[in-house]
Amino acid sequence: MKKKIKLIAAVAVMQVVALTLTACAGEIKSLDVVGKESITTFDEVLKTVPEAVSADEMNGGWSLVAPDESVRFIWSEDYSQSPMHDVMLELDAQPFLDAGLDPKKLPDNYNVYETESGDGTMLMVGRKLGADELTYDGSVTPLAAYEQLVGKYRDAIGYHASLDHYGVKLGDGNMFEWAKDMSTNTFDKSNQDKDIVFVLNPEPLLAAGVDPEKVQGWKYAQVEVEEDGKPVQVWKFLKPFDLK
C-alpha cells in the first residue's frame, strides 16, 4: 500500500513539474518581443520595397537586393535544399578585389565566383543553420520563410540597440539589419536614416589582403555592439540605405 501511495505521489510530482515547464516555455515564447517584432518590422521592409524582393532558385529561397544592386540578403525557404548557406549575403566582390583581396586566403564560409553572365565577380558569405525540411501551412512567401527562421533558429535573430535595428546573424560577425521604425530611431529619438544595413566583419577580409581605406562603396567604421552585457566598439564594413 505504501509503495502504491509513493508511486502515485511521484507521478503527481512529475505531472506538476511537466506542467510548470510547459507553462514556463509558453511564457518565455510569449515574451519573445525581439522575435515577434523582428517579423512585423521585416514585413514592413518587404512591403516598402516589393520590387527588391524576388525568389532565388539557385539558393533555394528569397532575396532582398540593395537599391544600388551591389549586395543581396538571401534567406532559405527549405534548409534541406540549401546548396551552401541558409542565410547569406551575396555582393559585388570587385571593390574588395581592387583593395587587395586574395580570395584564396578567405575562410571556408566565404566563396568568390564569377557571375553566370561572366561580367562580374561575386563574394558570398553566410551560415548553414541546419538541414530541416520546412513545411508551410499556406503559400511559401518571403515573410513565411522568415517566420520559419525565427521559429526554428531564434538565436540567429538579434536586436542592435544603438541603431534600433533587428537583424539576422550570418555568422562570423556578418549581419543583415533593418530598422525597427524607418522614420525614427526609438533608442535615441534621432532620425532613422539607416533603414537597412548590410554588415561585413572586416577581420577575415583584412587577413586576406584587403586595405580597408581602399574599399569603394562600403563604409569602414566603428559600431557599438554589446558583448557580455557591455557596450564595445568594433570595426565593420557597412552599406546602409534609407528606404523612406
Blueprint (SSEs and pairs):
Elements: H1 2-30, H2 33-48, E1 53-56, E2 61-65, E3 71-76, E4 87-92, H3 94-98, E5 110-114, E6 121-127, H4 142-152, E7 157-160, E8 165-169, E9 175-179, E10 184-185, E11 190-191, E12 196-200, H5 202-207, E13 219-227, E14 230-241
Structural overview:
It is a single chain. This protein has 244 residues and is an alpha+beta fold. It has two domains: 1-31; 32-241, no CATH class. It contains five helices and 14 strands. The chain has helices at residues 2-30, 33-48, 94-98, 142-152, 202-207; strands spanning 53-56, 61-65, 71-76, 87-92, 110-114, 121-127, 157-160, 165-169, 175-179, 184-185, 190-191, 196-200, 219-227, 230-241. It has a six-stranded antiparallel sheet. The protein has a six-stranded antiparallel sheet with strand order 7-8-9-12-14-13, with helices on one face. The protein has a two-stranded antiparallel sheet with strand order 10-11. The N and C termini lie far apart (74 Å).
Brief write-up:
The chain has 244 residues and is an alpha+beta fold. It is built from five helices and 14 strands.
List key phrases describing it:
2 domains, 5 helices, single chain, signal, Lipoprotein, 244 residues, alpha+beta, six-stranded antiparallel beta sheet
Number of domains: 2
Query: What general form does the structure show?
Result: globular
Order of SSEs, N→C? HHEEEEHEEHEEEEEEHEE
**First-residue to last-residue Cα separation:** 74 Å
Strand order in space, largest sheet: 1-2-3-4-6-5
Helical content (DSSP H or I, runs of 4+): 25-40%
**Are there runs of 5+ residues with pLDDT below 50, and where?**
2-31
Q: Give the number of helices.
A: 5
Structural class comes to alpha+beta
The pLDDT mean sits at: 87
E-strand count? 14
Content of β-strand: 25-35%
The biggest sheet, with number of strands, parallel, antiparallel or mixed sense and barrel status, is: 6 strands, antiparallel
Radius of gyration: 22 Å
Protein name: Lipoprotein
Signal peptide: 1-25
Keywords: Signal
